[in-house]
Amino acid sequence: MKRFFGLSLVFMMLLSACDSERATYDQCRTIFDHLVALELAEMGYHDPLLTEKRQLEFTYRYRKDIDACIGRKIPPGALDCALSAKTAESVSHDCLR
User: Fold this and answer.
1) What SS3 state is found at 90?
2) Beta-carbon count within 10 A of 15 CB
3) What is the DSSP letter of 87?
4) Helix, strand, or coil here: 22?
5) Which of 5, 18, 30, 36 has its CA 20 to 30 A from that of 61?
6) pLDDT at 19 (0 to 100)
7) Which residues constitute the domain of residue 84?
8) What's the angle, vertex CA 59, arms to CA 69 and CA 22, rounded to 5?
9) In this predicted model, which residue has the larger pLDDT, 10 or 80?
């Protein structure tokens, strides 16, 4: 579970881009859910029901982080980039900077 704490920190730190739009709750939640799905897949879990359960669990656990994301600047196209990313690292390094 340490990995997901790190995920939360990366998620919050990287949503502070310069040239951008402001993140909505839906954008923050969608990116967070995709990061959780990617992290689970990277750990070898590919069950859609488990992924959905974990997304709900982590959304509750990190709800303050998701709420803090709302209104932060995100780069143009960040959501599309994040959803097409194949790794959590790609989301943080390619989409949210």
Assistant:
1) helix
2) 25
3) S
4) strand
5) 18
6) 59
7) 2-95
8) 20
9) 80
**Predicted confidence (pLDDT) at residue 1 exceeds the cutoff of 60:** no
Bridge-partner residues for 73, per DSSP?
22
Q: Beta strands of the chain (E only): which ranges? A: 21-22, 73-74
Domain count, the chain: 1
Report CA-CA distances (Å) from 12 to 27, 44, 97. 13, 25, 11
H or E, element range at 62 = none
Residue 9 to residue 48: CA distance in whole angstroms: 25
Query: Do 74 and 23 form a contact (C-beta atoms < 8 A)?
Result: yes
Of 17, 12, 55, nearest in space to 33 by CA: 55
Those residues with Cβ within 8 angstroms of residue 22's Cβ, 6 or more apart along the chain or in another chain: 71, 72, 73, 74
Chain segment 3-50, per-residue pLDDT in tens: 555 565 555 555 554 557 899 999 999 999 999 999 999 999 999 999
